[in-house]
UniProtKB/TrEMBL annotation:
Reaction(s) catalysed (UniProt annotation): octanoate + ATP + CoA = octanoyl-CoA + AMP + diphosphate; a medium-chain fatty acid + ATP + CoA = a medium-chain fatty acyl-CoA + AMP + diphosphate
Matching Gene3D superfamilies: 3.30.300.30, N-terminal domain of ligase-like
Name the UniProt record assigns to this protein: Medium-chain acyl-CoA ligase ACSF2, mitochondrial
Entry annotated with the keyword Ligase: yes
EC category name: ligase
Domain AMP-dependent synthetase/ligase stretches: 15-265
Role according to the record: Acyl-CoA synthases catalyze the initial reaction in fatty acid metabolism, by forming a thioester with CoA. Has some preference toward medium-chain substrates. Plays a role in adipocyte differentiation.
Keywords: Ligase
Provenance organism: Photinus pyralis
């Protein structure tokens, strides 16, 4: 039995217990296995759980600033993970899943652990912390049939696979948490020997996925999208006056349903900013909804570049730049300009041993995008500022180049 002694910390007075998963002893902390063994079956069976009580508190990604604590109920986690697994076909076939996203991310908790518990899937956690080499080794050694990951994680996997050339067995790749280019999807199929790619879109505030691909994935010639509306969900795309826009026209995505968060912990003001009186969650994402129920992210509303009165979506330019054979990853931001308000700045990670100039970038983009969207500044990056879950923090990029 583990000790019930509480911690006492002057720096963090609210912290009472620390539980470690590692077998290595840590002074003042409880071991995870001991905590599990400390509770018997009778105690668990005698405890009544209210489905609407908070079951999980997850931090937001922190892509726009300080992370917020998001309260999700037991019901939200259980239902979101169930309908995700059903959409991915877990009720029809068993999978061995290589889980690249961290377990403190909604992709890890709802999309992986809870999802697998519903359908009896096998989860493979390659390493205590994110490591693309270990992820690739696990794909081969455990003969994983499905990969979970963000676009950045797939880029890393492809780079490692190019060097190590492992024998891979994965049939499907589930991708989400950030925009991706058609070129990346093609590389995933080619380099990782994947037959089907399953896109998804969601947020921590929505307990995970709101749009998910069908189990057959994207097909040849199909319009690239982020999946189809998940079962029993409501969505709408609105303009600046909150009027619903026609199908195929970009606007801000609002969503509502069983999956919408209870709110931000002890932060009613921030909660009211994103949840209206009818419980619509304002995602802050510029989105296109199609008549067949599919949709795709165009970009973040806050990331929109306004150059001389013209609205420019960074995502469009990023996808074009990532189709360049020498560019691994691209981020596009607006930088201040005295006359135009903002100009387009391309920040890129390059393949080893190559060099690119602004002129060569502009030549590559010529006639592929409108002239006013052309990058006028170029920054070569070794890495991008990221959240612990791997998302790029564009607000830090903007701060870095505004100084």
């Amino acid at each position: 039995m583990c000790s019930t002694k509480r911690l006492s910390s002057a720096k963090c007075p609210a912290l009472k217990f620390v539980v470690v998963i590692s077998n290595a002893p840590l002074r003042g902390a409880h071991n995870y296995a001991e905590v599990l063994n400390a509770v018997d079956t009778n105690t668990v069976e005698g405890y009544h759980v209210n489905p609407e009580e908070t079951g999980v508190i997850q931090l937001s990604s922190g892509t726009t600033g300080r992370a917020k604590a998001i309260c999700l109920s037991h019901s939200q986690v259980v239902n979101s993970s169930y309908f995700l697994g059903k959409r991915l076909g877990f009720d029809k076939a068993q999978h061995i899943i290589c889980v690249q996203p961290p377990l403190f991310h909604v992709f890890g908790v709802v999309g992986s652990i809870s999802n697998a518990a519903h359908f009896g899937a096998t989860l493979v956690f390659p390493a205590p912390m994110y490591n693309s080499t270990e992820n690739l080794k696990a794909l081969e050694n455990e003969r994983c049939t499905l990969i979970y990951g963000t676009p950045t994680m797939y880029i890393d996997l492809i780079n490692v696979q190019t060097q190590l050339k492992k024998k891979l067995y994965a049939q499907k790749a589930f991708i989400g948490a950030a925009p991706f280019s058609p070129e990346l999807l093609a590389k995933i199929k080619d380099k990782l020997n994947v037959q089907q790619i399953l896109p998804g879109y969601g947020a921590t505030e929505t307990s995970g996925a709101v749009f998910v691909s069908t189990s057959s994935g994207l097909t040849v010639g199909q319009r690239i999208n982020d999946g189809y509306i998940i079962d029993h969900a409501e969505v709408k795309v609105v303009d600046n006056c909150r009027n619903i826009v026609p199908f195929g026209i970009p606007g801000e995505l609002y969503v509502r349903g069983y999956y919408t968060m209870k709110g931000y912990l002890d932060d009613p003001d921030s909660t009211r900013e994103v949840l209206d009186c009818e419980n619509w969650y304002k995602t802050g994402d510029q989105f296109i909804l199609y008549e067949d129920g599919s949709g795709k992210v165009v970009g973040r509303m806050k990331d929109m570049i306004i150059r001389g009165g013209e609205n420019i979506s960074p995502t469009e330019i990023e996808k074009l730049l990532e189709s360049h054979p020498d560019i691994l990853e691209a981020q596009v931001i607006g930088v201040k300009h005295e006359r135009l308000g903002e100009e387009v700045c391309a920040c890129v990670r390059l393949k080893a041993g190559v060099e690119l100039t602004l002129d060569s970038i502009r030549e590559f983009c010529d006639r592929k995008i409108s002239g006013y969207k052309m990058p006028t500044q170029l920054r070569i990056m070794e890495s991008f500022p990221r959240t612990p879950s791997g998302k790029v923090q564009k607000f830090l990029l903007r701060q870095q180049f505004s100084e």
